[in-house]
Specification:
This protein is mainly α. Helices cover 74% and strands 4% of the residues. The protein contains 6 helices and 4 strands. It has a two-stranded antiparallel ribbon with strand order 1-2. A two-stranded antiparallel ribbon has the order 3-4. Strand 3 and strand 4 (149-151) form a beta hairpin.
Length: 262
């Protein structure tokens, strides 16, 4: 009875152990429950939280880069329009042009000014106006804890640039256009610096997250060839133990039969 009881206990334990190792091999994870490696599990969960936060931060940064690119494109077209207004202003300054000629020039200037204002007021991201001064600096949650950096929101409307109502048929100053061009160029320069900073943060997030995943893998992942080898060794040892047990029982039976015969 004692031998049978031990055998049953060993059999149950063997089944549980088999299920555990087969489950690990199937999932590829060395740690499936806290009892497998409590300290390792705690470290893995911390790394997973950090890497997931960095991945979300990287996605937020990509959105921020998208905002910066939209603004840069819009301001680029605004500078082109202002450059053309400057050319027309120089043309209107020529004494060979009369009032009617200047009015025709002003018609084009008015159209270009409308294009500038339309870009300033109509440039949006997710229904948020980016360049009319109505929005504060945009927070980009680039870090794993929700903190991060800011993207500056410009105000490049005609009124802010100082060229609202610019008219070449009246007294005008070409320096007003020069100042407007300079203001937008400065805003583009700042926007470009912020874009570079965002791209650096994105690369940092992705690289750090990748390294964390690698570190987590070294702790959490199962060495499958080794696990299979260990399982095969256990199977051979178990077969050997069972063979020895059967042989002992047969020997005991032979001894009992011998004494019984005597």
């Amino acid at each position: 009875m004692r031998v049978g009881g031990v055998s049953n206990v060993n059999a149950v334990y063997g089944i549980q152990r088999d299920r555990s190792i087969y489950g690990k091999i199937a999932s590829g994870n060395r740690i499936q429950r806290a009892k497998d490696d409590a300290a390792g599990l705690a470290i893995v969960n911390k790394m997973k939280k950090e890497s997931n936060g960095l991945d979300v931060g990287a996605a937020n940064i990509k959105d921020g880069i998208g905002v910066a690119n939209i603004k840069d494109g819009a301001m680029g077209t605004m500078v082109d329009s202002l450059q053309r207004i400057r050319e027309l202003s120089i043309q209107a300054s020529n004494g060979l042009y009369g009032e009617s000629d200047k009015k025709m020039i002003q018609n084009e200037v008015d159209q270009l000014l409308q294009d500038v204002e339309r870009s300033a007021v109509g440039t949006k991201y997710n229904e948020m106006k980016l360049m009319d001064g109505s929005m504060a600096d945009m927070h980009i949650a680039s870090n794993a804890d929700g903190t991060g950096m800011k993207i500056g929101m410009e105000n490049v409307t005609l009124q802010s640039l100082g060229i609202d109502g610019y008219d070449v048929t009246k007294d005008f100053n070409i320096e007003d256009i020069d100042n407007a061009i300079q203001a937008i160029n400065s805003a583009r320069s700042k926007n470009g610096a912020e874009t570079n900073s965002l791209e650096h943060a994105y690369n940092s997030n992705t690289n750090t997250s990748l390294n964390l995943v690698g570190s987590r893998s070294r702790i959490e992942d199962l060495d499958i060839p080794k696990a299979v080898s260990e399982k095969e060794k256990d199977r051979l040892l178990e077969n050997y133990r069972m063979g020895m047990m059967r042989k002992r029982m047969q020997d005991d039976a032979s001894v009992l039969k011998l004494f019984g015969g005597v």
